[in-house]
Design goal:
about 15% strand, alpha/beta
C-alpha cells in the first residue's frame, strides 16, 4: 500500500470529490476529530466511490464513537498511537475487504474523436462547435482536447494564449491531481480546453501516456471531445481505440471522399468499424455528389451532415466563439444533442437517410 494523498483538515464536499476523482483511492483513513464533518466525509466517500474501504482513526475506543461508526457502516477502526502489530493486522483486513469487493470509480465512456479524411475538411471546426454545444448542456462537464501537434488550431479559434498544452498534460499524466490539472487546462466559457501548443517538429506522445491521461479525464468529465490530425500517429490510434465513437469527417468532393474511403479501410483494419461514423461537411444545394453517392464511394452511411456557411464560420472565428447563427448552428446543436445522451448513437447508422430532407434542405442535419 502507498499513501497517495494526505489532507490535514476536512475538505468541503466539493473539494473532496475533486480529490477523489483525481486520485481514485482504494481506501481512505479518516480521523474522527469532528463527528459531524467526519460523517459528512464518509457519505461523500461512499457516494463518489462505491466500495471504497473507509477506516476511522481516533485517539480512544470511545463506545459512543464506535456506535456512530457502526451506524455509518465504516469498514474498520484503529486508535492512535498504534503499535506495528495492530497496524499490520488492520492493513491485512483492508486487503481482505478489497479482495471481496473492488471500488467502483465512476468514469465516463463518452470519448468522441474527430478524424479528417484530409486536411482542410473542417473536422476541427465540427469538433470545436460540438464541444461548445455540449458544454452548454446543464450538468455536462465537457473537455475539448487538440491532439494535432503539427497543425492544431483550437487555441487560435478560441483565442487561447495560455502556455500549458496537451504535451505537458501527457508528460504529467501519471501524476495528475486536481491542483496540477487546474494549471494545465484553459477555459472557454463553460468548456475546458487542452490545446495542442506551439508547433515543435518531432514532438510526440507515448501511447502509455494517453492511457494514464484518459484514466484521469474519464473520472473528471462527462464528455471528452478529441480533435486529431488524421496522420494516424500511434497515440491517435490509441485514442481512437479508447473512444466510444470515431467520427470520420469529409466534404462532398471526390478527393476528400477518395481519401475517406482509404482511411476507412485503415480504421476497419484496426478493428474500429463498430465505432465509425461518417460526417459530411460543407454541403450545399448544388453539390455534384449526393448523399447516396457519398455512401457508395466511402462505404459508410452518412451519420450527419453540416451545411456550408463560410460567413458564419468566419464570424465565429473572429469572435473566438461558437457558430451562432443560421442552419449551421442548428446542425451543431442537433448533432451535440445526440452525443449528450449516454446511449451510443449506433442505432442511427442504418437510418442515415433520415438525416436528409427534400432539396434544398436535403443536406442539412435534422437532429
Amino acid at each position: 500500500m502507498a499513501v497517495i494523498r494526505r489532507l490535514d483538515s476536512y475538505p468541503d464536499p466539493s473539494d473532496l470529490v475533486r480529490v477523489l476523482r483525481a486520485h481514485a483511492p482504494e481506501a481512505a483513513f479518516v480521523a474522527v476529530s469532528d463527528p459531524e464533518r467526519f460523517a459528512q466525509a464518509v457519505e461523500v466517500l461512499k457516494a463518489t466511490i462505491p466500495g471504497v474501504v473507509i477506516v476511522a482513526i481516533h485517539d480512544a475506543a470511545d463506545p459512543g464513537v464506535l456506535v456512530d461508526l457502526i451506524r455509518l457502516r465504516v469498514h474498520d477502526f484503529i486508535t492512535l498511537p498504534a503499535d506495528p502489530g495492530a497496524m499490520q493486522s488492520l492493513l491485512e483486513r483492508v486487503r481482505g475487504h478489497l479482495a471481496r469487493r473492488s471500488p467502483e470509480w465512476p468514469a465516463t465512456d463518452r470519448l468522441y474523436t474527430f478524424v479528417p479524411s484530409k486536411p482542410g475538411v473542417g473536422a476541427s471546426t465540427i469538433a470545436l462547435n460540438t464541444a461548445l454545444a455540449l458544454a452548454r448542456t446543464p450538468d455536462l462537464k465537457t473537455l475539448l482536447i487538440d491532439f494535432d501537434l503539427n497543425l492544431g488550431v483550437q487555441a487560435f479559434m478560441l483565442k487561447i494564449n495560455t502556455a500549458p498544452c496537451v504535451v505537458d498534460a501527457c508528460e504529467f499524466a501519471a501524476k495528475l491531481d486536481e491542483n496540477l490539472w487546474s494549471n494545465l487546462v484553459a477555459r472557454a466559457g463553460s468548456l475546458d480546453v487542452l490545446h495542442a501548443g506551439a508547433v515543435e517538429p518531432g514532438q510526440r506522445i507515448d501511447p502509455a501516456q494517453i492511457r494514464h491521461l484518459l484514466e484521469f479525464l474519464r473520472r473528471n468529465y462527462d464528455v471528452i471531445v478529441a480533435d486529431v490530425s488524421g496522420n494516424m500517429e500511434r497515440y491517435s490510434i490509441e485514442l481512437m481505440q479508447e473512444s466510444k465513437s470515431v467520427f470520420l469527417v469529409c466534404t462532398p468532393e471526390l478527393p476528400a471522399l477518395h481519401l475517406a474511403r482509404r482511411k476507412l479501410r485503415l480504421l476497419e483494419a484496426l478493428d474500429l468499424q463498430e465505432r465509425l461514423h461518417l460526417l459530411l461537411n460543407r454541403v450545399h444545394n448544388r453539390a455534384a455528389v449526393s448523399a447516396s453517392d457519398v455512401e457508395e464511394i466511402v462505404g459508410l452511411p452518412v451519420f450527419a451532415s453540416f451545411p456550408n456557411d463560410y460567413l458564419e464560420v468566419h464570424k465565429a472565428l473572429t469572435r473566438g466563439e461558437a457558430v451562432a447563427g443560421g442552419r449551421l448552428a442548428k446542425a451543431f446543436t442537433g448533432f451535440s444533442g445526440l452525443l449528450s445522451h449516454k446511449k451510443p448513437p449506433t442505432a442511427q447508422r442504418k437510418r442515415f437517410i433520415e438525416h436528409f430532407a427534400v432539396l434544398p434542405a436535403r443536406y442539412g442535419f435534422r437532429g
